[in-house]
Amino acid sequence: MNMSDNESLIYSDGYDYGSGCDEDTNTDFPNKHMVMLVLYYVLFCLGLLGNSTVLWVLLRHIKVKTMTDVCLLNLALSDLLLTVSLPLWAYSSQNLVSCKLITGVYQLGFYSGTLFVTLMSVDRYLAIVHAVAAIQARTLRYGITASVITWVISVIMATPQVIFATLDIDEDGTPCHPIYPEDSKDFWKMRRNFSENTVGLFVCLPIIVFCYVKILVVLSKCRNSKKNRAVKLIFTIVCVFVVCWVPYNVLVFLQSLEQLRVLNNCHVSNAIDSAMSFAEIIALSHCCINPVVYAFVGEKFRKSLARVLSKYSSLSYLTRSALSEGDTTEKETSHTPVRSDY
C-alpha cells in the first residue's frame, strides 16, 4: 500500500485544508506509515474473524427471528464491509472501477455501522424501558423495515464520495481520493464533514446516551442478581462508542474550522493532521469490538456458540460447562427487565 506523508486512509481528499504550513514542520515519528499499515491489517484480521463468526452463528445456528437478531445481523454485516475494505485499498489504484468500488464499500460500512449501533440502542431501550408497549414494535417485520431504511440512508450519504472518487496519483501520492468540482469544492468538502459529524456526533451519540441513561434508571429500580453486570455492560457500550468515535469526529470538526479559516495556525494544522491517522485507527477498531460487546457477551449468542464448538471441537467439557452456566443465568433473569435477547 503506497502511503504518502499526508495520506489518510479514511479522510484524504486530495486537497490541503490548512494554513499553508510547510510539511517539514510535521512531527510524525519515523516509520509511522509502516506502523499504521500493520495496524490496519491487524484490524482486518480481528474484524474478519469476529464478524464472520457472528454472521455464521446467527444464520446457521440461531436463525433470525426477532428485531434484535436483525439488528445484530446487519451490524455484523456492516462491520464486515468496513473490515474487508481495509486491505483492498492497496489495490484501489489499479483502475477507476476498483477505486469507486472500494470507496463505496468503505463509506457504506462507515455510515451504516454507526447507524446500526444506534438502532440497537433504541431496540434495547424499547425492550427494557417499554417492555410491554414495545412488543408489537420489536417484531421481525419492523426490524427488517428499520434495517432497509438504515441501509438506504447509508447509501445516500455514501454516494457523493463514490461519485467523486478519482485516480490521480500525481496530486499527493494518494492513488484513490475524491476530487470535487472546482466551483463547488468547498461545498462538497463541508457536506462530507457535516454528514460525518451529524451521524457520529450530533445525532447518534445523543440518542445512544439517552437510551442507556433511561435503561440505567429502570435497572436501578430492579432487584436482580445480574443488575450490576447489566450496568457494567451498558457503561462499556457507551464508553467504547465515545472513545472510538468522538476523537475522530472532533478532528473532523476541527478540519471544517480549518476550511472556514477559523483555525489558521501552522502548528495546530500539523497537530490535527498527525492526530487524524491515530483517530482513524481508534474509530476503525470499533468494528472489531462490536462483536465482543454485542454478541459474545450475550447469553443467547454464547449458548449457541457453545453448541457449535461442542460439535466442531474437542472442548466438550468446557462447552457443557458454558451451556450449564448459561441455563442457570437464563433461569435467574428470565422474568426481569435486565434480560435481553443479546
From TrEMBL:
Where can this protein be found?
Cell membrane
Q: What is this protein called?
A: G-protein coupled receptors family 1 profile domain-containing protein
Q: Which coarse location class applies to the principal site listed for this UniProt protein?
A: membrane
Write the signal peptide boundaries.
none
Q: Which UniProt keywords apply?
A: Cell membrane, G-protein coupled receptor, Membrane, Receptor, Transducer, Transmembrane, Transmembrane helix
Q: Which GO terms describe its molecular function?
A: C-C chemokine binding; C-C chemokine receptor activity
Bilayer topology annotation? Multi-pass membrane protein
- Transmembrane regions listed in the UniProt entry: 38-59, 71-90, 110-135, 142-164, 199-219, 231-254, 274-297
Ranges for domain G-protein coupled receptors family 1 profile: 50-294
Pfam family, any one: 7tm_1
Family annotation (InterPro entries): CCR1-9-like (IPR050119), Chemokine_rcpt (IPR000355), GPCR_Rhodpsn (IPR000276), GPCR_Rhodpsn_7TM (IPR017452)
Family assignment from sequence similarity:
Belongs to the G-protein coupled receptor 1 family.
Q: Which domain of life is it from?
A: Eukaryota
Provide the GO biological process annotations: calcium-mediated signaling; cell chemotaxis; immune response; positive regulation of cytosolic calcium ion concentration
Q: Which GO terms describe its cellular component?
A: external side of plasma membrane
